[in-house]
Amino acid sequence: MKTQGKVCGIISNIVIARAEGAVAQNEICYVYCGDTRMMAEVIKVIGEDAYVQVYDSTRGLKIGDRVEFEGHMLEATLAPGLLSKNYDGLQNDLAKMDGLFIDRGSITEPLDFNAVWEFTPLAKVGDKVSAASWLGQVQEQWIAHKIMVPFIMTGNYTVKSIVAAGSYKVTDTIAVLADVDGNEYNVTMVQKWPVKQAVRCYTEKPRPSKVMETGVRAIDTFNPLAEGGTGFIPGPFGAGKTVLQHAISKQAEADVIIIVACGERANEVVEIFKEFPELVDPRTGHKLMERTIIICNTSNMPVAAREASVYTGMTIGEYYRSMGLRVLVMADSTSRWAQALREMSNRLEELPGQDAFPMDLSAIISNFYARAGLVKLTNGKTGSVTFLGTVSPAGGNLKEPVTESTKKAARCFYALSQGRADSKRYPAIDPLDSYSKYLEYPEVEQYLGEKIEKGWVELVRKGKTIVQRGKEANDQINILGDDGVPVDYHERFWKSELIDFVVLQQDAFDDIDANCPMERQQMMYKMVLDICDYDFDFVDFNECSKFFKGLINLFRQMNYSEWKSEKFYDYQKQIEEYVASAK
Amino acid sequence: MTTRAFQKIYTKIDNITKATVTLRATGVGNDELATVGGKLAQVVKIMGENVTLQVFAGTEGLATNSEVVFHGEPPKLKVSDNLAGRFFNAYGEPLEGGEQLEGEAREIGGPTVNPFKRLQPSELIATGIAGIDLNNTLVTGQKIPFFADPDQPYNAVMANVALRAKADKIILGGMGLTNDDFLYFKQVFENAGALDRIVSFVNTTENPPVERLLVPDMALTAAEYFAVDKGEKVLVLLTDMTLYADALAIVSNRMDQIPSKDSMPGSLYSDLAKIYEKAVQLPNGGSITIIAVTTLSGGDITHAIPDNTGYITEGQLFLRNDSDTGKVIIDPFRSLSRLKQLVIGKKTREDHPQVMNACVRLYADAANAKTKLENGFDLSDYDERALKFAHDYSEKLLAIDVNIDITEMLDTAWELFAEYFTKEEVAIKAELIAKYWKA
């Protein structure tokens, strides 16, 4: 019997419900406004009064309206058939909704429960299993989707029976498990998991040791993101956060990509809806949409569901990780999620922290980032969730609570700078402020040494030093004037410009330049470093800048040319001759 | 407002603040309208029997025994084709004292368009202003504000853009508009013979500020009628959104909410997003494009209002006085149209993206040269040329009084390149140089 309640107060989307029985913190309930049934979550209980945040507009709601408590927290439905879906923050399938507008209380099934899947058993009768053990698999798009022991089943079980290979619906029983006391449990292909709890069905969480290629030079070459790592991209509006995130979602070396559009523009999501079904992943030859799940709570959708959206995305990510896959979860933007927390906290009249954000903001953010990671599964295989969030700092000021809290939690920091964006140096990732802590990991250094070339991390540090020295030289030039400093300074400055224009800058809208594979990055980077190694003997600063401008132009043409094409090698030759002539 | 038979009348108000009244009442719905002593009010909070109402026109003169009548419904607008050519106040009542509207009454501030049902905006809006068309191309279904200081001619630019945009309907939402500006809009539209395409909802500085909160929702409800029901291309002009946000702050303050940055309510982002996200390209061919004005204080875009706006809208058009040419220009550095990538080089000539970027890069070089000059350093030959280029670029392309088509803008840019730079300095793809360089 579900606990019933009645509305006794309404403040915007917070409703106070007087409960006639037990209620739990974070329990889901439904608020009835006429015929409309709206989902809500308990966020505070005082005596008999449950404060619930409604995931919808409370317009027209009256005192005395019915509330029904569900007895469970907000859950994600996990089963084959999630890939390529477009969900809202509460996992309603947006494609299944009728009508142009999303009416209040619209609820649609996240799955097609009538679909039939070809099941192949992996476990056999008598096997000892526990939560997340693989029982069998079905082919979902081109991924071998593992059917697992539900995550909520703690303890050890024995497989009593398992169905033979064949066609089944997700709701069909595919195995019967027995616990140590002999109690039997039916297992289907679908399970539920409360989104706000981390899935912990793994044996250990080792430090990340591999790098996830993104095709973006400023990331892969200069500040690589580890597989199973975390990173964030803060930047003022117009600095190119979304373009960068889209580029990564298209190009990243991952098996499953989950894009959480959290309180952002609908037209940007539409871009993904329209483009991804057309685009092909160059690594696998499959359509991008086949490996993508979109969770979309645009800025005008209910605020409370915005908070839920990031958790829903992360939970689905953890589910696919348990199958031994590499998952990339991206959230744009986590600031909107923090603002949703602020709005709630404000309506609950909690004492505010800095900038009116809730006091526990920092803890909430680090808990969330901690759910990402590389894990060793119970069967010895590995899986990973890499998380990349954007932050939209108020006024572009990085000293605000969300940026500062995230900085403590995330290992990679890709600071987008207004200055670079103003001069159209995209991606506007600041080469000096940004960092990747993974470059300091010996295991990552070893991995890069084997994968790219020996001593690669040393080369990266060298490039960073050149950029740093170039900036210092430029500061001097600006203070003392072109003539006031030795020609050396100009050479130093222009060498850093060379790295900037050829390696750091990249045209996300050019078909060829947009995605730069590691092999190509290595070649271009080393060409540039070789030139930086040489001490030129320029007569004056005019000669110096003229030489480098010409050189940069040739390199840019090379970046726009197809990899290993005739044109590409032709530009390489031109560059070699051009440099030789100056020596 | 006529009283209906079933309506309960209350005559005992418990609390009165500057903007709200609280009384004991039952059977009241959230967001419902009411009349308090003849003034329009809306339910903002219900706690058991205690109902708090926000009185739009302020509570001056209300007494504890003033009559309170609940309407049983949220604010609505009667929509029909007869909206066209009319001027209304913030409540949707005719301004010129004309006939009351007939039509279907629709709740304002209605639900969201399912993002999955939207189309990607793809139709270019040509304005003839090169600072917009060349550098920051607009597309139907886009939402974009002008960021301008109060002394800049943003309303005039906006009226120009509206008239050149070839929209089926133009909906003006005026918030805190001075009477002079209101009359200016009226006159410009009348002179252009466009009055029958215009619907206006206006709150002038003479009206109570809190009333403004209804204006964007009224304007957008009318816009949705024409775009969704009639498949028309609708352009919505909202001026000035800073004054709208100020009204939000007033209400939130009177409701004892904890302010966040710059005394603005913590929900500012969501409040603004609800309005701007109504911009949409619909599958039936209809569209809502929103062009707004956000006035700044001394060009400061880090203030909470422009800052939150920038994160919501698809770019911003930044007006600036250019001291070199004495003209108001659209600042190429700080302006941005996020949707331009959908049309430039596709709906316009292939060289558009590269020409646009090269211009801005060279203009940035000129800005550096200017800094050098101001610091008393010698300029190189390149610096001199960059400065000359910047002057011509500003005058011939960035100034808001330019009115030419996009191909002409691109040709002008190529002429300037050839006049002041070498091919290498312009650094555009070799194929485009070969095709378009003006020898």
What do these coordinates show?
The complex is a heterodimer of chains A (583) and B (439). With 583 residues, chain A is an alpha+beta fold. Chain A has 14 helices and 27 strands. In chain A, the strands form six sheets. In chain A, strands 8, 20, 21, 22, 23, 24, 25, 26 and 27 form a nine-stranded mixed sheet that branches. In chain A, strands 1-2-5-4-3-6 form a six-stranded antiparallel beta barrel. In chain A, strand 3 (27-33) and strand 4 (36-46) form a beta hairpin. In chain A, helix 10 crosses helix 11 (487-504). In chain A, 53% of the residues are buried. In chain B, 32% of the residues lie in helices and 23% in strands. Chain B is built from twelve helices and 21 strands. In chain B, the strands form four sheets. In chain B, strands 9, 13, 14, 15, 16, 17, 18, 19, 20 and 21 form a ten-stranded mixed sheet that branches. The longest helix of chain B is centred in the C-terminal third of the chain and has 23 residues, at 352-374. The mean pLDDT of chain B is 92. Chain B has helices at residues 130-133, 154-164, 179-191, 215-229, 241-254, 268-276, 304-312, 352-374, 381-398, 406-420, 423-426, 430-436; strands at residues 9-10, 13-16, 20-24, 33-36, 39-47, 50-55, 68-70, 76-79, 87-88, 104-107, 124-125, 138-139, 143-148, 169-177, 198-204, 233-239, 280-281, 287-295, 315-322, 327-330, 336-337. In chain B, helix 9 runs antiparallel to helix 10. Strand 1 (4-11) of chain A pairs antiparallel with strand 5 of chain B, so a sheet runs across the interface.
